[in-house]
Design goal:
This protein is α+β, with helices and mostly antiparallel strands and 219 residues long. 38% of the residues lie in helices and 11% in strands. Helix 4 packs across helix 7.
Amino acid sequence: MTEDPTHSRSHVTRRDVIVASAVLALAAGHTGSAQAATATPSSPSPTPEYPKMDVTLTVNGKPHTLALDPRVTLLDTLREHLHLTGSKKGCDHGQCGACTVIVEGRRINSCLSLAVMHEGDKITTIEGLGTPEQLHPMQAAFVKHDGFQCGYCTPGQICSSVAVLDEIKAGIPSHVTHDLMNVSFSDHEVRERMSGNICRCAAYPNIVAAIHDVQKENA
């Protein structure tokens, strides 16, 4: 009798394939776990050190020579190195105005400017405008008109307000100036020029009133 060739082959069922696949998967996972457990964790790459630069700044009338990382902003230099914390770090993107200071008579967002760019510059912060005993006229006007609530943006608002009056007096036009040869004070000019200083407490009308008072005193 002829032998049936199918009887000589091993009979593999679907169940056998599934079981074998599961065993192989478990074995591979165990091997990977063991290798991961015995592997030595790699050390993080060290942060590259940049050579420091000597920078001399005249801040609020006092010269300061500092050894600074060239990547440090003027705001961080004022706050972290000179401990003048009146200038605030709000958005850190130049959009809120809380970090406004006056450099060589012009206001800037100090979070967007590197300290090394201001070698030899004269810088005025809120601490240099007045003292609790002898307030700057703009500071006194802000108090009088309640131009602040939480107070976080107030240093930048005041520095910007002082610079705004100087800009108008110097005849520097703004986006809303109609006659470029005749720049005059108006609430419209003030609102436009102060638009870069954000007050989340919405004390804007009081701020405009404070600036208006100081302008009248200086007129």
